[in-house]
Amino acid sequence: YVIDKVDHILVMTVNPGFGGQTFIPLQLQKIRAIREMVGARPIHIEVDGGIHVETAPLVVEAGANALVSGSGVFADGRYAENIKAIRAAAMRGRIAAA
User: Fold this and answer.
1) In this predicted structure, what is the pLDDT of residue 1?
2) Among residues 91, 24, 34, 23, which one has the least CA distance to residue 62?
3) pTM for the complete prediction?
4) 12: part of which helix (H) or strand (E)?
5) Cβ atoms of 36 and 9 closer than 8 Å
6) Which residues pair with 66 in a beta bridge?
7) Which of 14, 42, 66, 69 could disulfide-link to 21, CB 3.0 to 4.6 Å?
8) Contact 51, 33 (CB under 8 A)
């Protein structure tokens, strides 16, 4: 009943509280359901939690278009390389969704 009043939806893909948690795969169903509700509306679907190279394509394919990654970016102190790898993985998810 508020879908026409929002421009951004955040889906937590971990239990909020602290960094480094494991991605909750069942949240992919929630992302898909939200993407279906959003339809063609200009609403961003953002995911936060457990986002790294393995999970980025999954959430993008499910319908997310904004990703938050903490531990996935800061792992091993290789920030630029990690960001590049996550972006490439997200693009694979976009291609798979097309």
Assistant:
1) 86
2) 34
3) 0.93
4) strand 8-12
5) no
6) 46
7) 14
8) no
- Closest residue by Cα to residue 23 from 60, 73, 59: 59
Amino acid at 43: I
The encoded tokens of residue 30 equal: 């929630």
Helices (H), the chain: 27-38, 56-62, 71-74, 79-97
Above 90 in pLDDT, residue 16?
no
Round to whole Å and give the CA distance between 66 and 79: 18
Q: How far is CA 82 from CA 23, 33, 43, 79, 85, in A?
A: 17, 29, 27, 5, 5
Q: What DSSP character marks residue 51?
A: -
Q: Which residue has the tokens 């509700």?
A: 37
Are 36 and 47 in contact by the 8 Å Cβ rule? The answer is no
